[in-house]
């Protein structure tokens, strides 16, 4: 059967939609499904309403996941958009290659990684996902059309981080990164507070770096956490392949309540001794720590959660400290917040990254104060000259987003050419009025 | 020694997952189906995953003219020759009730079409003294149910055929695995109401490969369907005929 009617949601589950879904497995079936006029969606690892089209159609690309060619000398891989990055890591790491940029989950698809121009723990030196895309093939009514940065720079830029609005991505040609082995040497260091964290991120020379922040700690302890630095090293994959555990039920609302989260965060910090620790870990465990628990989003209960992720310019670190302090003071529980340094690398008009620091915090949707808090944080981000990550967003206001993304008009002009009738609209694009820009 | 598989109905969700596993363990695959243009992408996928040989060839269970070229292609392969059958179609029982002529197509797709190919391939396998046949039936073939009995009857016929073929090929060093998947999350079942305990195709394909390696005769996948079908088969007919399960 081609279509089914279903309720479906973004990863945070606070935003959901009822609509018709197709999941084609062959190119002709995909072409037919696209005739129903809906956006292509991936594995729905965007947190908010980016992968939703309430009341309309959406085309799940997860079964269009074939590897089309691979050059073992150059590391150039052509792959269909529904392939997950975790699958690519599993297949190519033993051959000495990996995707050049990996986000925090291996369940994200290639198409989703492009549509959100995702970043990873090496953004400060590798840039964003779209910067390693050599070509992308879009499905058009006239058939597949290859778009390259050289041949059609405008459309290519509008597609990288373009939220799927330039058309369904059928496949992409990726430049993989050569790796010495399947191991990551990881150094974990306890960090006492926010300023020390910024200093440590600045001082780090590691290829991969990520900070886990205790977003429940206030005052003197504000911004305390663990800095994790990783370097690729030789050797086969240590340990057994991971067997993911799953969360069988929606957790009751209290599972991630404030006291529980405080305890968890304290335990998470104290695992790492004062003097730090060094470990050698398999790549998937380093890159995708939360994938060990399938459906961990259910831990937030039925109402789900929002994630707030922003980036501020390098000289606005004090503003980011205020943002973190505002979150900590609001007492919205979040087990682990993530703090990272970002480089300038970005591939599209609507790409999130800018040189500076990025902070991501989960907020349970059952807390009534979350929307007001989010709005306040938006204003703080705007005042700091930063940006909010649309891949995570389910709450931002159109005015702020228009101000945060100065290239919106340029993007809009390309999208209007590629999809003049608005077949690819999603709930996020409608909510943020991205396609109605001047 | 190299092993080459012909996959009949290679576009099906389970076939695709199975072909990937074969490719990753270094077997050659010849992908047979109607949409060879799209199958070319699956062949490319198999090559990237490690298949020393990956080709496509046209096969239509309802077009016997496509059968002989398949057998000729396999005869041209060196080493062990194996076959896996994933062909099938499942129109709703209500459509069949409205147009009984559909029965011919269902029986051809699920039983006689693939059986004719296997019958033509059997002498080659005997001559080479080995090889495996994987035949995918269905739990629906274990008992005729009101909602699905034409499809079930065709699958039952195919299962009985496979049992006989096993008897024959075993004498020549070959082996036949009959696979009975329960509900699987495929393009064929997408959007069908009332499905439960739905297994991903990759899980089913993994079970099939393990059955091939262990030379199992008949498997249910996932394995709990053995329990479910044992109960359903044990219900006496006077009671079963009144049930609508």
Automatic annotation (TrEMBL), chain A:
UniProtKB keywords: FAD, Flavoprotein
Domain FAD-binding PCMH-type: 14-179
Keyword Flavoprotein: yes
InterPro entries, A to Z: FAD-bd_PCMH, FAD-bd_PCMH-like_sf, FAD-bd_PCMH_sub2, FAD_lactone_oxidase-like, Oxid_FAD_bind_N
Keyword tRNA processing: no
Coiled coil: none
GO MF assignments: FAD binding; oxidoreductase activity, acting on the CH-OH group of donors, oxygen as acceptor
PANTHER family given in the database record: D-ARABINONO-1,4-LACTONE OXIDASE, L-GULONOLACTONE OXIDASE
Name of the featured protein: Decaprenylphospho-beta-D-ribofuranose 2-oxidase
From TrEMBL, chain B:
Gene Ontology annotations for the cellular component aspect, listed alphabetically: membrane
The keyword Magnesium belongs to this UniProt entry's keyword annotation: no
GO MF: oxidoreductase activity
Entry keyword Oxidoreductase: yes
Domain of life assignment: Bacteria
Record-linked InterPro entries: NAD(P)-bd_dom_sf, SDR_fam
Record key words, sorted: Oxidoreductase
Family per similarity comment: Belongs to the short-chain dehydrogenases/reductases (SDR) family.
PANTHER family membership: DEHYDROGENASE/REDUCTASE SDR FAMILY MEMBER 7B, DEHYDROGENASE_REDUCTASE SDR FAMILY MEMBER 7B
The protein, known as: Short-subunit dehydrogenase
UniProt source species: Rhodovulum marinum
Source species taxonomy: Bacteria, Pseudomonadati, Pseudomonadota, Alphaproteobacteria, Rhodobacterales
